Amino acid sequence: QELTDAEMLKFAQWTNLSETTFVLPPNHAAADYAVRIFTPRTELPFAGHPTLGTCHAWLESGGVPRSATEAVQECGVGLVRVRLGQHLAFAAPPTIRSGAVDPVDLERVLARLGLRDDDVVAHNWVDNGPGWIGLLLRDSEAVLSVDPDPLDDLYVGIIGPTPPGSEESFEVRAFFPSGGGTAEDPVTGSLNASLAQWFVRDGIAEPPYRTRQGTAIGRSGVVTIDRSPKGEIWVGGATRTRITGTVDLSG
């Protein structure tokens, strides 16, 4: 509670992780805890990977949710429900921008990714906070072959179907600007959430299905996508504690 915004960002830069989160008492009466999410560059209103990781850490540290079946996280986009169980899953928040990508932005994205118009099966804004643009490519091989140039201010997710018989239905990659270049996220819950909302809305794919992410950078992320009878999209995956300890931020 005593950390300033600048101190939070400085620590996130020091960890140099995809995201660093800070847990706070909630302001909303329905929330179990509040969280602020920082990349080494900026604060995000929402991100899926740190949502599940933060809930895992909060529970492991003795946090007790009001409900036996879910925890409620307060963050920049409002309240996010996290379903408890062997694998945590969050209810996808609504997108703040959707619809086809305008030609100017699409041309910029294709140029940065080295793609042609006919490489893209469909495109959509899939922004639920970070500012994602989503591209559906013809297959997972096309997804894995992309070698992006610096993206400037663009946040881009690409997805393509895997070969028949694969355990996962789609290959996903997520690119974002970093220090004048481009970084790739090993697993991106927010992007998988909004891609699923787009796919359901446009009849491209119907949950349940699983996606694979991180292959191109030596990771083996797997994300589960489910849809409730009420139509809610739930995004889940395995969470594990990798680092524990204390940090002195007073100096």
Protein described:
By secondary structure, this protein is of the alpha+beta class. The protein has five helices and 15 strands. Strand 4 (70-75) and strand 5 form a beta hairpin. Helix 2 crosses helix 5. The longest helix is centred in the first third of the chain and has 13 residues, at 48-60. It is globular and about 50 Å long. 37% of the residues are buried.
Question: Secondary structure elements and their pairing?
Answer:
Layout: H1 5-15, E1 20-24, E2 33-38, E3 43-44, H2 48-60, E4 70-75, E5 78-83, E6 88-91, E7 97-99, H3 103-113, E8 120-127, E9 132-137, H4 140-144, E10 155-161, E11 170-178, E12 181-185, H5 189-201, E13 209-213, E14 221-227, E15 233-237
Parallel strand pairs: 2-4, 9-10, 11-13
Antiparallel strand pairs: 1-2, 2-3, 4-5, 5-6, 6-15, 7-8, 8-9, 10-11, 11-12, 13-14, 14-15
Helix pairs in contact: 2-5
Keywords:
251 residues; alpha+beta; 5 helices; 15 strands; globular
Number of helices: 5
Shape: globular
Main beta-sheet strand count, sense and barrel state: 15 strands, mixed
- Strand count: 15
How much of the polypeptide forms β-strand, as a percent range? 25-35%
End-to-end separation: 16 Å
Fraction of helical residues: 10-25%
Q: Could you tell me the radius of gyration in angstroms?
A: 18 Å
Structural class, by secondary structure, is: alpha+beta
Nearest-integer average pLDDT: 95
Uncertain residue segments: none
Order of helices and strands: HEEEHEEEEHEEHEEEHEEE
